[in-house]
Amino acid sequence: MPNCPRCDQSISSNAIACPHCGMTFKAYGHPGITLHRTMGEEYLCNSCTYHADDTCNFPQRSYAKECTLYQDMSQSQLDTGPIYTPRYSLVQSVKLWCQRNPAWLGILALATVSFLLAWMAI
Q: How confident is the model over 67-95, as a mean pLDDT?
């Protein structure tokens, strides 16, 4: 179980606020929104990736001590390498196309039957 940064009492890992001192851990009382907070005199913006690339839209930008958008520049980001795209054989590609496009397959079959009937009537 983690400890409260203000009163150093043990708290539940999914606590929204400290039951001892009332310090808020989750933004807007919602357990899914983490509230990042600085403990010293340093502002969060100095080490935030959104501030560094000028995409931050937080109202207290440059002077924020609490922020829901904070992303630390020193922590490694996810690898943004190329997305894996599997290679299919010709037979697999045709099967997938037929599964994804049954309407076009029906129109193609109808046109083929029509041409065969017209050709046989000649």
A: 79
